Amino acid sequence: MVPRPVAVGICLCDHVIVEKGTEKVSLIGLFERFRLVSFPAVAAPFCIVARLTGGEGSGTIQLEMQDLETLALVENWAQVVQFSDRLAHVNVLFRLNHCTFPRPGHYQATLLADGEWIAQQRFEVRLRQ
User: Residue ranges per domain, the chain?
Assistant: First the structure.
């Protein structure tokens, strides 16, 4: 995709509601920290949503989840998006149902457009006490 889109924002949340007809998006339960019982652990379903602009045509948006201590890639997802023009805003939604975290620590969700970095969001995974 040329030109590469710019991320207006990227968020982790419990749920995303997309209203029929208006296509308005509501983010429910924004967070930056997981509290899990044991490790390795599968997190409860959650969403990562990004609002992009500045792209043109179609391209692949990839989401990579990385352990920031070991730099290991934990999970990886991709989807194709379409921009009608460079002024259009496109919401990219990843609904994650089986994301496994190998250990507590700091992680990063990174968005790539056709392999090029466009945004990132750091978050923490802790042991629930």
Answer: 6-127
State phi, psi for 72 to the nearest 5 degrees.
-75, 140
The pTM (predicted TM-score) of the whole model is 0.90
Class of domain 6-127: mainly beta
36, 16, 34: which is closest to 26 by C-alpha? 16
pLDDT tens-place string over residues 66-121? 999 999 999 999 999 999 888 888 999 999 998 999 999 999 999 999 999 999 99
Sequence-ordered strand ranges (E) for 37-88? 41-42, 46-53, 57-67, 73-83
Spell out the residues 6+ positions from residue 16 whose beta carbon is closer than 8 angstroms to its own. 25, 26, 27, 28, 47, 49, 93, 95
Is-contact 16 25, C-beta < 8 A? yes
Q: Which of 24, 46, 26 is nearest to 35 (CA)?
A: 46
